Every structure is written in structure tokens, then in C-alpha cells.
Amino acid sequence: MHFADSLTNAIQQKSPVCVGLDPALDKLPEGISRDAKGLLDFSTGIIDAVKDIAACVKPQMAYYEVLGWEGMRAFWETCAYAKLQGLLVIADGKRNDIGSTCDAYAEAYLQKDSPIDALTVSPYLGSDGIKPFIERCKNNEKGIFVLVKTSNLSSGELQDLPTGDETVHEHMAQLVASWGADALGPSSHYSSVGAVVGATYPEELKYLRSLMPNTPILIPGFGAQGGTAADVKVGFVNGNGAIVNSSRGIIFASKGKDWKEAAAKAAEKMKGELGSVLK
Description:
alpha/beta, TIM Barrel, eight-stranded parallel beta barrel
């Protein structure tokens, strides 16, 4: 199924909650080992806790890569497990390059039989650093989320720079919309080429949604970074077209033995908060 159609179905059946899997070793709860096995145990435990609440999970690759090949094995096993549990999987790797290297990145993560449904990508090498990913999206029913306006405080150092009558992030949004214009899902009418726009910039999110009417938006920055349900409402169209990510606020809701139960409660609370503004 087309990625955006799958995403829309998951949002409608469960919620627009995306749970970020950021298993920092120094924050793992009681009883979890600080090694690759611990990463896998923690990640699969969180997946079990949220699988009936969230539309998707977003493993942050850096926390797996830090443990070398064993960590990357845990990453791939985490992705495969999430798929088995009925979740969409967004790999947060922010990949980008040009030429054959970019093509290799696209093939590595978005090949047909990969458990990864979508990948975050950086667009700042231009369209030739994006096209190989888009080709895989079209051919393999995958998706990408392109960085447009990120949630971090210093994002404006580049993304808010004026370029004539618009800013860099506004121009980037228009590029993303054009890149995905011929990759719309037959039922959702959203593109397989999505955008990343932070909850911490609600005014920008509102305007960027108007520039990208058919673009699914991944909205990080909810909860621990300060974004609220009211902030992210403007990223949705009739309750669809966006997913909202929370990482620390869910996966580290407790560091005690009740960490799974606490994660489920935090995800359910987030679902309720989003539901209250998206009625």
C-alpha cells in the first residue's frame, strides 16, 4: 500500500501519536542492561506498551549506532519487531548525499523488503540528494520526511534566513511540495514525500501547512521540548495529514520497574490531548 495511505489508515484507526525510540544508555530504566541486548529489550518493551495506541514508532539511529555493529543489529531487530506488532516504522537517520552514495543510502533503508516504512532525510544538498529516495518511495511503497523547519532553538540560524520575499524554510517547503506532487496516495491524496516541522514553531507550522497541502508532516518537539496539542493542531487537515512525535515524555515516563506501564499511560494521555483538539 502507498505509504501515505498506510499512514492515514493508522492515524484513523489508532491516533496521530508517533513514539520516538531514543534509548540513551544512561537513561535506561531499572533492570535493563547498558548494552545492545538492553537496547533491544527496552525498545521492544516500549513497542509492546504503545502498539495499540500509536500509529508509528521512530527509532533514532544514533542511539543504536553508538554501540557499533551490535547496536545496529538491535536497530534492525527493533524495526522488524515493530512491523510485526502492526506499527509503521520511521527510521530517524537524516541521511543525505549525492550520486551513487545517495543511491546506496536509499537502497539500504528503503528497499522493498525493508521493515522500515520511511526515513528522515536532509535536503541541503539539493534535489539530486533527494531523488534516489523519492524513486524508492514510488517503487517500493515507502516514504521520506524531509527536514523543513526543525524544532531545535538554533534552527533559525539557517532555516529562517531571508531569500528575497521568503525564508529558507518557506522555500524548502515549496520544494518538498513540488518533489512529492506526483507521488500522491490514491485514497489519502497525501504524498509519500513528507516534511519535518517542529511543534515548537506553531506559527511557522500553520503557514507551512498552507504551502504543503498534500504533504504529511512529522511534528517533533511535543512534550519535553515544549510543544502542546494546541500548537500542533494547525498541522492537521480534518484530523489527518500529520503525526506528532514524543520521545522522552513517553519512553522515560518512569525509570522504575513500571516503565512499560508508565509509557503506555503517557502515550494514552498524549492521544487524549491530541484528540481533544482534533475533534
